[in-house]
Design a protein that fits this description.
- The complex is a heterodimer of chains A (249) and B (329).
- Chain A is mainly α.
- Chain A has helices at residues 2-17, 19-41, 53-82, 85-90, 96-125, 132-159, 166-179, 195-200, 202-215, 222-245.
- Helix content of chain A is 77%, strand content 0%.
- In chain A, α3 (53-82) runs parallel beside α6 (132-159), α6 runs parallel beside α10 and α9 (202-215) crosses α10 (222-245).
- Helix content of chain B is 42%, strand content 27%.
- Chain B has helices spanning 42-49, 71-77, 93-103, 108-121, 137-149, 167-184, 195-201, 219-226, 238-244, 267-280, 295-303, 307-328, and strands at residues 2-13, 16-27, 31-35, 57-62, 65-66, 78-81, 155-159, 187-192, 204-209, 212-217, 229-234, 250-256, 259-264, 287-291.
- In chain B, the strands form three sheets. In chain B, strands 6-7-8-3-9-10 form a six-stranded mixed β-sheet, with helices on both faces. A four-stranded antiparallel β-sheet of chain B has the order 2-1-4-5, with helices on one face. Chain B has a four-stranded antiparallel β-sheet with strand order 12-13-11-14, covered by helices on one side.
- In chain B, α3 (93-103) packs across α4 (108-121), α3 packs parallel to α5 and α4 (108-121) runs antiparallel to α5.
- In chain B, 40% of the residues are buried.
- Classes of the chains: A mainly alpha (249), B alpha/beta (329).
- The A-B interface holds A 2-3, 5-6, 9-10, 13-14, 17-18, 83-85, 87-94, 248-249 and B 50-53, 72, 75-76, 78, 80, 82, 84-91, 95, 99-100, 102-105, 147.
């Protein structure tokens, strides 16, 4: 537990210190919120809910923030590898599992904080708070998304030699996960051939869970969302640990 | 008990043999050097002894712990300063130390005390709250050494500890290393391709080339094996010197272009004798110099090439391997 805490602490310290990274990674979600939210608010009506597009969009943008932050936190071990710091942890008398879990929880924490910042900003922009319990539900889903995708990032990073392949992962893995998730549109309105694809995307369940928490309505049963996302989180943690164990310097 | 015992340790990368059946013993409290050109297998050896890399075959014990069956025992016994930097630049000196202390499960109060002690030792106490990215190369090296000592290892590995440092910093670091060895009795194994570093620091030196140890002894014995010293005298009447100096310790005497070179063992001992003899016979000495054999001569003796030639070759070999790897993908 001490080891996991030590690695978690290092990650959080680095995060708090990198002010430019914090501000920088909030830029895109804010842009989405303001431009898409206000730009499309009067044009788009979400069928079946009666809410405006902005309110529909907020959970999606929060999920996006958590997704991007957590994956890049996970992939950070490539930098540790390149700058040599990973050796310092790998040569210590600690298990790989502890290192991996510390890294995962650290990444998930930073991703969660980024998500909370967007959530708070959304309240200022005009999000109505439905209930305190809803907030807690939203937090739960943010944490799950954070853990799952940090572990996913670690799994990817364990197989990568350097950062060159990251752009490829970004374009062909991360953006599709985000785009297909129903963060920007209701999945019920998708053509029938595309909807099953969205339902295969684990982030869909995160977005819908968040949406249930923040607006009280969702297109997928929140219990289903929780079970699927929690299962995915466990699977990714196992996969990440497995691949990280085989990492060589 | 020997601090490190290595037996037929071998590591292959595909069909390239990086380390080939090396065996040696390092006594407790010794400073042991692995000297050789880049690509000779020094770092691979260190990587295996520090559990970073699994040996292809062979065995070794570090501090009595078996490399193959007791990885954690080995890890607890060793401290290591890697060839490439391994600090977190976004953390302060203190935080880097603290992180290390936590990884080795050192209780908080002992941890704080030792961090203070060690940072004072390497003269970084005043900079402890500065981010490592503001540190110079020498300061980083010192911090890494301090960090490697935090958990009180029995054996300290230093992989090219002074690579890329300026001569002043290098001297400074050498003093630290000697101090650590004398005061704390830590066994130190270091790799280097600097002759003078091995010469100055190491009790015993293993010369390693193409993955095999080709010679292992004290620096003095290695040099003695190669041959004696050379005294060069510049003088206008060289002809008379050869008839004047006929002592039994002279091995060879030659004169050419106003210079007389004398080959002998232990030139230090006989130098005054030579000068007295020449003065007594009123032979003018314009200048006199003594050249001791260096480890460079030793390396040349055993491999038939200087370490620099070898290095150019080593780089070539590495490049060939890279090409090979790329082609395979």
């Amino acid at each position: 537990m001490d080891i996991i805490y030590a690695i978690w602490l290092r990650n959080v310290k680095r995060y708090v210190r990198s002010k430019s990274r914090i501000v920088g990674s909030l830029g895109m979600p804010l842009f989405f919120l303001l431009v898409l939210g206000f730009g499309l608010n009067s044009v788009v009506v979400i069928p079946g809910t009666g809410e405006g597009y902005l309110e529909f969009l907020v959970p999606g943008v929060i999920a996006m923030t958590v997704l991007f932050t957590s994956i890049s936190s996970g992939v950070q071990i490539i930098w540790d590898k390149q700058f040599g710091f990973l050796k310092e942890t790998l040569v210590a008398p600690v298990s790989r599992l502890e290192i991996m879990l510390g890294q995962t929880l650290g990444g998930a924490t930073t991703a969660f904080i980024q998500g909370v910042i967007i959530l708070v900003l959304s309240v200022f922009i005009g999000l109505n708070i439905v209930s305190a319990v809803g907030f807690l539900i939203a937090f739960l889903f943010m944490i799950l998304i954070g853990i799952a995708f940090t572990a996913f990032g670690i799994a990817i990073a364990s197989r990568m030699e350097d950062m060159h392949g990251f752009q490829l992962i970004m374009n062909f893995v991360i953006f599709p996960i985000f785009g297909l998730s129903g963060a920007l549109f209701p999945i019920d309105s998708l053509p029938s051939w595309l909807k099953p694809v969205a339902l295969l995307d684990p982030l869909t369940y995160g977005v819908e869970g968040l949406r249930y928490g923040l607006s009280g309505t969702a297109q997928i049963d929140p219990m289903v969302c929780f079970v699927v996302l929690a299962g995915f989180t466990i699977a990714m943690t196992v996969l990440g640990s497995y691949l990280f164990r085989k990492i060589t310097i | 008990m020997s601090a490190i015992h290595v037996e037929n340790l071998t590591r292959m990368f595909h069909d390239f043999v990086a380390v080939n059946k090396i065996s040696f013993d390092i006594e407790s409290g010794e400073i042991f050097g692995l000297l050789g050109p880049n690509g000779a297998g020094k770092t691979t050896t260190i990587s295996m002894l520090s559990t970073m890399l699994k040996p292809t075959s062979g065995t070794a014990t570090v501090n009595g712990r078996d490399l193959l069956t007791d990885e954690d025992g080995v890890r607890k016994s060793i401290g290591i300063v890697f060839q490439d930097q391994s600090l977190d630049e976004e953390l302060t000196a203190y935080e880097n130390m603290d992180f290390h202390g936590r990884l080795y499960r050192i209780p908080k109060n002992i941890r704080e005390e030792r961090i203070f002690e060690l940072l004072t030792l390497v003269e970084l106490e005043e900079r402890k709250n500065d981010l490592v990215k503001t540190f110079s190369g020498g300061m980083r090296r010192r911090l890494e050494i301090a960090r490697g000592l935090l958990h009180r290892p029995k054996v300290l590995f230093l992989d090219e500890p002074t690579l890329g440092l300026d001569p002043q910093t290098r001297n400074h670091l050498w003093k630290y290393i000697e101090q650590l060895n004398e005061e704390m009795g830590i066994t130190i194994i270091l790799t280097t391709h600097y002759m003078e570093e091995a010469d100055r620091l190491c009790d015993r030196i293993a010369i390693i080339d193409h993955g095999t140890i080709i010679a292992l002894d004290t620096a003095q014995n290695l040099k003695n094996k190669v041959g004696g010293d050379v005294v060069t005298i510049q003088t206008p009447d060289g002809d008379r010197i050869s008839s004047t100096i006929t002592a039994p310790w002279v091995e060879q005497i030659e004169q050419r272009d106003g210079y007389v070179t004398i080959n002998l063992h232990n030139a230090d001992k006989h130098l005054s004798e030579i000068v007295t003899l020449l003065n007594g016979n009123e032979i003018e000495i314009t200048s006199i110099s003594v050249r001791k054999p260096t480890l460079e001569d030793v390396f040349l003796y055993y491999t038939g090439r200087t370490i620099r030639e070898q290095e150019a070759d080593g780089r070539e070999a590495i490049r060939m391997r890279m090409v090979h790897r790329t082609a395979r993908r």
